[in-house]
Amino acid sequence: MITVDLDKARKELESGGIIALPTETVYGLAGNALDEDAVGKIFSTKKRPHYNPLIVHIKSADYLPQVARDIPDVAYHLARSFWPGPLTLVLKKQPNIPDAVTSGKDTVAVRVPDHPLTLELLEQLDFPLAAPSANPFGSISPTSAAHVEKYFGDTLPVILDGGECRKGIESTIIGFEGERPVVFRMGSLSLEEIMEKVGEISFNTKSVDQQPSAPGMLLRHYAPVTDTYLTEDVRGLVTLHPDKKIGLLLFQEKIKGIKAANQEVLSPTGDLEEAAHNLYAAMHRLDSLDLDMIIAERFPDHGLGKTINDKLERATHRDEAN
Ligand code: TXA
Ligand code: MG
């Protein structure tokens, strides 16, 4: 049920239940991170494979040593720079974090979310919250309470309504090789912003979304049900399919003089932050129109444009099943 009743949310969590809650990135499906049963409910509700670990949400960086150990200085520097905010750090875990949360890894992913309701809730609780995005495994992440209700309406007693997510795309995930930060997942915090603080960083996207134990399994992710294509030449691709009912996902402007059932423009002013904020909501809308195909335009390859292209590439990957 969609509600703004913080007390009800707290009681549900304290009695071992799970709820949906808002963050600045996407909505999360949250439970007590220290309670294996609650964590189990998250995995079963999401139908998430057990090898894919969860992010632990804490109330402030001061709480970090309670969930992580051997924390590199550079991790503290990043935490101080960007928390609360859309940055997740992968660190060595403390023994009290259950294996169910980390999928048996000796590392834990942790962040401080930047949403007043959820920060207030964390303040009232005496445990951290494990929370993946509140969507069934493999589908588009929710950026509003209504999206969560569409997915899990009957099964969740509390969907805490915090409005539309300000950022609209998941957090950026950074791990460490010694003191060296490594990118595990592109997200709402641009790589440029991170590099301003720590210098050049390397990539290790394989370690998060493509588990070595299941090669390629997670390449297709954040995906609409409708067949989706990514191209630099939207007009060209549309004209190749004259008989299809097509929806378009565009950066700045509509394409004139073509036959398309629906055209979603993500930022008329060309603002990549705004485009990121609007991306998933537009995908949800197009996906509900019963189209034959969705064609997305490739975004500029800098700032959050890189993140948007990464998400669109995953949405269009159709060789892999999951
Ligand atoms: O913005 C976000 O991060 C949202 C909100 C709710 O906080 N959460 C989110 O969670 O996107 P989820 O579960 O959809 O994605 C978590 C990602 C997964 O790709 C998982 O593999 C990775 O974090 N992850 C979690 N723990 C990890 C670890 N110990 N090592 C490497 N990757 C990890
Ligand atoms: Mg997710």
Automatic annotation (TrEMBL):
Enzyme class of the recorded protein, top EC level: transferase
Binding site for ATP: R48, N52, T107, S133, S141, R185, Y222
EC number(s) given by UniProt: 2.7.7.87
The keyword Nucleotide-binding appears for this protein: yes
This protein's record includes keyword Nucleotide-binding: yes
GO MF terms, alphabetically ordered: ATP binding; double-stranded RNA binding; L-threonylcarbamoyladenylate synthase; tRNA binding
Reaction(s) catalysed (UniProt annotation): L-threonine + hydrogencarbonate + ATP = L-threonylcarbamoyladenylate + diphosphate + H2O
Subcellular localization, as worded in the UniProt entry: Cytoplasm
Keywords of this entry: ATP-binding, Cytoplasm, Nucleotide-binding, Nucleotidyltransferase, Transferase, tRNA processing
Domain YrdC-like: 3-189
Assigned GO CC terms: cytoplasm
Amino acids binding L-threonine: T25, H57, R111, A131, S171
InterPro entries hit by this protein: DHBP_synth_RibB-like_a/b_dom, Sua5-like_dom, Sua5/YwlC_C, Sua5_C, T(6)A37_SUA5, TC-AMP_synthase_SUA5
Coiled coil ranges: none
A single GO BP: regulation of translational fidelity
Domain of life: Bacteria
Broad class of the protein's primary localization: cytoplasm
Protein purpose: Required for the formation of a threonylcarbamoyl group on adenosine at position 37 (t(6)A37) in tRNAs that read codons beginning with adenine.
UniProt similarity note: Belongs to the SUA5 family.
Name of the protein: Threonylcarbamoyl-AMP synthase
Native species: Muriicola jejuensis
Source species taxonomy: Bacteria, Pseudomonadati, Bacteroidota, Flavobacteriia, Flavobacteriales
